[in-house]
Amino acid sequence: QRILRLAEMCRRLETEEEKVLPFYASSLAESEQQNARRVLEKTPSEPLAQAMQDYVGLERFWQRFNKAKLEEVALEQARAALANKNRDLRGLLQQYLTGAAINQKVP
């Protein structure tokens, strides 16, 4: 029930682009995509690979989850960069104000 509720919440929060184009563009070349399709069409022989076939339906969820995590990390890095820039600017402003106060004291 929790997963279904989260899926409904995610669906409501999708952008229009994600609703219209739910699939992500592949970065593979055409020949690589054909090779990947051929491999996926084969019946897996290893037990782990067979078990993974049961979870193919979660692939879209993991794509979105990974995309959200990447965006979260990018935003954290941007926030940290802005915080550093803000700290540097505050330091420069403090130096300027200190210099202006000294200049006013000197006759």
From TrEMBL:
GO terms for biological process: axonemal dynein complex assembly; cilium-dependent cell motility; regulation of cilium movement. Residues 68-95 form a coiled coil. Keywords: Cell projection, Cilium, Coiled coil, Flagellum. It is found in: Cytoplasm, Cytoskeleton, Flagellum axoneme. Its main location: cytoplasm. The keyword Metal-binding does not apply. GO terms for cellular component: axonemal dynein complex. The keyword Coiled coil applies. It comes from the Eukaryota. PANTHER family: DYNEIN REGULATORY COMPLEX SUBUNIT 2 (PTHR21625:SF0), NYD-SP28 PROTEIN (PTHR21625). This is DRC2 protein. It comes from Horornis vulcanius. The lineage of its organism: Eukaryota, Metazoa, Chordata, Craniata, Vertebrata.
